[in-house]
């Protein structure tokens, strides 16, 4: 079974019919909206956030139809689905066959992983070409910003270039030793040097015995695991660290929410921020949800009293953690707003 189909099934399984197929689409595409980010947190789906940035709504419909035809899904409401027992088995079997997908961490490392790979591969190509003194070459990455980044960090002396290349070899070997041989080969085959042109992802997948359509997912999962290892052991990977974008908010925190956060730090109220930024209060509330989700030390006390917070928790404990927002609102009445509920859920106690 295609890994992409399994991931869609996994997202829909955790939605439990409470979100539509298009909620899954927005999450997999990496839509930077407060609702999508909150869904990712609430349903524990952030590993899949932004995994398929180019996916289309039509493809989601096609995947859902194929999964229904195979008996993995059944409709439960308009555009909502439940995963069948057969679908559960398919998810478990695929995860057992390709355990690397458990290492996906799209929300944290999605954009960082892509940027790391582009910088790293172009640096390797450029460095080996310069050392070989073989003249001009066509860069494998055409992005001018990436080219500029690599050029700015290229050592200007031959002995320094040799030292960097040796260290990169040592560090990459240490990272790849944690994977089975064919996975390590899958990465190495895609590297371009002065002696060889790197394989495309599809070519490398074919050589290593992977389904070509699964290659992107396997590649991302490996990059995410490598980045996590580098984060845990920074001193072991001093050169590779340079290729990592150090922007903790790059995965999901929108620029607009960042502007709101700065105004909050300056002491402005939500209404003042809405007026100042010429936005609806509801939009500012969405920003607060984003900030609360991404900053564990952000205090929600100015917006929700302890009494209301405990009432929401108590109702969820009684009805189950999958209770809908509407159910909480109807039970607690006018003393709570949807904003308060969403904010408390953003800090949902385990």
TrEMBL record:
InterPro entries: Helicase_HTH, YpbB-like. This is Helicase Helix-turn-helix domain-containing protein. Gene3D superfamilies: ATP-dependent DNA helicase RecQ. It holds the Pfam family HTH_40. It comes from Alkalihalophilus pseudofirmus (strain ATCC BAA-2126 / JCM 17055 / OF4). Residues 256-345 form the Helicase Helix-turn-helix domain. It comes from the Bacteria.
